[in-house]
Design goal:
By secondary structure, the chain is an alpha/beta fold. The protein contains 10 helices and 11 strands. Strands 3-4-5-8-9-10-11 form a 7-stranded parallel β-sheet, with helices on one face. It has a two-stranded antiparallel ribbon with strand order 1-2. Helix 6 links the parallel strand 10 and strand 11. Helix 7 packs across helix 8 and helix 7 runs antiparallel to helix 10. It is globular.
Length: 305
């Protein structure tokens, strides 16, 4: 496993997005724990969760509780694991994703996450999404208050644009360490945000990083039973499958290696619902693509904006 920098922490170059273990189509408890443990066994030291990762209208914080149980039950050394969680979204019974960036809500949500994770301070706490009904600076101000109170150690923002990242950086300074935006071969409209993260020394955590190569958990339950995420039949991304075939690895692994090559700031957080899947993803940290391969993959990936 190779490592990258996130604030003052050294974390695995590939993390685990734990969301699929708690939302629709989730595995049973035993397989969920086995998936997290397989990630840790593979050298993964960044686990990304959120208080809103649960079934619609039920079990708030399910994913955070699962992470806490998995770490407590792990037989190896988990001291170096950084748990990143998020606040500011909800999942009502209709299955939608709501947004609440009110500072009072964010501070209460962080307190609840703190209890569920069973830690003295949350390693990385992220504003899940800007709330159009609340001034962005006020939401980020809640993160600053949580930092000052010692409730969280590091702060991040998610689903933000360049101006919002700059505003968060002005408010939080070097305690802002990460930006989590959607980014993949199919969705590349955060190129400017990625460049800014590299400029400011922030980690860039792509969510749904396998877009165009695999279905996301947000697309619904997986349909394959072979242990790997189902591949989307999109001819324009055939280069990823061709490189994978030549290398004897999965297209998903090639996709993650391509993301890592985009910038030293990138730390992808692919989801997984089976041990085999996260083992395959973690191996991408050690897959170094050549210049010709990267040029071929860059040409295949879609640039939006």
């Amino acid at each position: 496993m190779r490592y990258r920098t996130l604030g003052d922490r050294r974390v695995s170059a590939v993390g685990l997005g734990v969301m699929p273990l708690s939302i629709e189509g989730r595995p049973d408890g035993a397989r969920a724990l086995a998936t997290v443990h397989a990630a840790l066994d593979s050298g993964v030291t960044l686990l990304d969760t959120a208080d809103s990762y649960h079934l619609p209208g039920a079990e708030p914080g399910h994913n955070e509780l699962l992470v806490a149980r998995a770490l407590a039950a792990y037989g190896g050394d988990a001291k170096g694991v950084l748990v990143a969680t998020k606040g500011g979204r909800g999942r009502p019974a209709d299955g939608s994703w709501t947004v609440n960036g009110d500072p009072r809500h964010l501070k209460a949500a962080a307190e609840a996450s703190l209890r569920r994770l069973g830690v003295e301070a949350i390693g990385l706490y992220q504003l899940h999404k800007p709330d159009p009904g609340v001034p962005f600076e006020e939401s980020v101000g809640a993160l600053r208050e949580l930092l000052d109170a010692g409730k969280i150690r590091l702060a991040g923002v998610s689903n933000t644009d360049v101006d919002q990242i700059r505003a968060a950086h002005r408010i939080l300074g070097d305690r802002l360490v990460s930006v989590q935006n959607q980014y993949s071969p199919a969705v590349r409209d955060s190129e400017a945000e990625l460049r800014l993260c590299a400029e400011l020394g922030l980690a860039f955590l792509p969510w749904s990083p396998l877009g165009g190569i695999s279905r996301s958990s947000l697309d619904g339950p997986a349909r394959r039973e072979d242990g790997l995420s189902p591949t989307v039949d999109e001819p324009r991304f055939g280069a990823f499958r061709a490189v994978a075939a030549a290398r004897g690895v999965s297209p998903q692994q090639v996709c993650l290696a391509w993301l890592l090559a985009r910038s030293p700031a990138v730390i992808p957080i692919p989801g997984a619902s089976r041990p085999r899947t996260i083992r395959d993803s973690a191996a991408a940290a050690d897959l170094v693509l050549g210049a010709e391969e990267l040029a071929r993959l860059n040409g295949a990936a879609v640039r939006v904006g």
